[in-house]
Every structure is written in structure tokens, then in C-alpha cells.
Amino acid sequence: MAGLICSACLVVALPLMANAPAAAESGSADMGSSGSAGSSDIYLPVSTPAGLQALAAASTQLGKPYKWGGTGPNSWDCSGLTQWAFSTAGVHLPRTSQQQSKVGHAIPAWALAPGDIIIFWHDASHVGIYAGFGQVLNAYGPNGVPVGFNPLDRMPPVKTIRRLG
């Protein structure tokens, strides 16, 4: 089993052979190009190195004001902040939260880890970076409100969680 391990020894995603016992019992399996029978990715609640780097970069912007359409360096909107933060980790995101809701890997809520992005509202109109301990680091309006942390349980409804890197 190959897994990505960062410098802090965190396993990111392990491809597990969900159907391995059945394939082993039958004596034959279509191994495909990946060399595993019935494999699927299982996401664990652990951060990617890129997600942690983006979270660290975004945290340097705490206190700067929210401004709709802001792409820094003096003010930010939600997607401008996530786009910039992930670019520091070598991950190039599209500009809007709606576009960002479609990149990376969809993660179930139980596997949420620091550095994952969370897209909010049914129309995907807000995005933030999960910071751990139930907090979301985000640029959240109205204009002038400082970039900061908000409790996840007080945020708008979650549309999707995405893991990048």
C-alpha cells in the first residue's frame, strides 16, 4: 500500500483494496493498470502538506480587511485568499469559490483535516480553509471585516469539502 507521508508522518490517502478478500478467494481478479483489484481511495482525517502550507500562509493575512473582489495583498475576498494561500504551496486554484468547489478530492465531513477547503452555501458562494479545532480561517464580509477565524458550527451550510495537494 502506497501512501503519501509528510514530514510530520501524517498519512494522507491510502488506496485500500475494498474487494481484496473476494478477489483472493476467487483466485482471479482484473488487476487493471493500477495493479490492485477493486481499489478505492479512503481519505483519513489528516492534512496534506500543501493544505498545511496554505493554512500557514493564510494565517499571515489575519486582520486584513474583507473586500468583495479582493485578491490581496491589502484586502481579500474569500476565494482570493484561498487562491493566494494555495499558490504559495504550488497549488493553482481557479478564482471563484464556485470553481474551487470542483477541484481536488471531495472529502466526507468525518475526514475533515486542517488545510482542507470548505465550500459553503448551496450556490458555493463562500470558501474558507479549515484550521482545526472546529475553526475556519476565512475572509468573510461585509466589506471591512477582518480576515479571521469563525467556528465551523456557526458557518453557513456546507456544500462540499475539498482536499488539495
From TrEMBL:
UniProt entry tagged with the keyword RNA-binding: no
The entry's keywords: Hydrolase, Protease, Signal, Thiol protease
GO MF entries: cysteine-type peptidase activity
InterPro entries in the record: NLP_P60_dom, Papain-like_cys_pep_sf, PG_Endopeptidase_C40
One of the protein's GO biological processes: proteolysis
Record's keyword annotation contains DNA repair: no
Ranges of residues in domain NlpC/P60: 48-165
Alphabetical list of PROSITE patterns matching this protein: NLPC_P60
Signal peptide: 1-24
Gene3D superfamilies noted in UniProt: endopeptidase domain like (from Nostoc punctiforme) (3.90.1720.10)
Domain of life (superkingdom): Bacteria
Similarity field: Belongs to the peptidase C40 family.
Name of this chain's protein: NlpC/P60 domain-containing protein
Organism ancestry: Bacteria, Bacillati, Actinomycetota, Actinomycetes, Mycobacteriales
